[in-house]
Amino acid sequence: MEQQRENEEDEEDTDDPRIAELILIKSMYPELRLQCLDDQLQRAIDEQNFHYHHFDDVSSITVLFNVDESLECRLTMSVDYPSLDSNCLQIFCHIISNKNQQKQLNERVENELIERNSLIQVVPKIIELWNEMKSSFSSDSKSKSNNVNIEKQSDSHSNQIDRYWIYSHHIYSKIKRKSIIDLCRHQYHLNGFMLIGKPGLICIEGPGDDCQKFWQTIRSWNWQRITMIDIEENLNNSQHSQSNQSTTTTFESFVEYIDRSAVFQMLAAKNSDKIIKNYLGI
After folding, report:
1. Measured in whole angstroms, how far is the alpha carbon of residue 60 from the centre of its chain?
2. Number of domains in the chain
3. Which residue, 15, 186, 236, 243, has most beta carbons within 10 Å?
4. Where would I find the Small nuclear ribonucleoprotein Prp3 C-terminal domain in this sequence (predicted)?
5. What are phi and psi of 230, to 5 degrees?
6. For 166-219, what is each residue's pLDDT tens digit?
7. Which residue segment(s) compose the domain that 179 sits in?
8. Are residues 126 and 18 located together in one domain of the fold?
9. Does 83 share its domain with 208?
């Protein structure tokens, strides 16, 4: 009996505090639609298994959650948790087009992370900050849209080359795959790739307007989870500012992949694998 009690105490001592906090956050804020990139870990959280041990004790845990339809968050919890640093949280807002506003939001969130050292403390503060700031962002965005609508349609914006990195929980549907290919190859002028399976990855590259329309279109479809990983803007200026030659892109066409390793090899060869590796914690 005493031995059993000691074993139970040892088990409690080795419980991962990250699991406990994720379970609590999911129960406290179900509207966030919290999801882990690791399916086994997600199942443990759904089942409220406080004694679940992550398959790799030295790896980080990455979770996604939505404060609302406008704000997506990605949080990486390292093995040093509850220690949090300013780089562990990435946010993407669909109603902010102004880089200064995005920077302002990021800075405020980073300050909150520095002051707090646990997810239970950080999440409610992010919700509070966003509720406080989103009305001003939304009104500024609408005002800007009305004032520069003609400018956005100008040739200079159309010639801007952007690159969007998109993550999906999975991509299996033949209908979605065909629609994505048709959008890229026929409706818009977009190159890149799509990795089908679980998880699913999409990278598009082309005119800024086309990238934006593509994202707005597929985001409206029914997905278990789809989120923007990163946006690289104005690639033609950043890569070719010293040249008057026509813009070249990283991808020559839009290609569908089944083999994940082939995607990483292709991206490594093009020196473009950093964003995906950072996102997946590789």
Report:
1. 16
2. 2
3. 236
4. 165-245
5. -165, 160
6. 999 899 999 999 999 999 999 999 999 999 998 899 999 999 889 989 998 998
7. 155-280
8. yes
9. no
Cα–Cα distance for residue pair 98/56, rounded to 1 Å = 40
The owner of tokens 């349609």 is 153
Q: 143 and 7 in one domain?
A: yes
Q: How far apart are CA 132 and CA 124, in angstroms?
A: 12
For residue 249, give the CATH number of its domain: 3.30.70.100
Helix (H/G/I), strand (E/B), else coil: 15? coil
The arithmetic mean of pLDDT across residues 251-255, rounded, is 92
Q: Is the pLDDT of residue 159 over 80?
A: no
User: What dihedral do alpha carbons 15, 54, 172, 183 form, nearest 10°?
Assistant: 90
Q: What is the largest CA-CA distance in the chain?
A: 80
8-20, pLDDT tens digit by residue? 444 455 678 888 8
CB within 8 A of 167, min separation 6: which ones? 199, 200, 201, 225, 226, 227, 228, 229, 279
**For the residues 27-55, what does the mean pLDDT come to?**
84
Cα separation, 19 vs 26, in Å, equals: 11
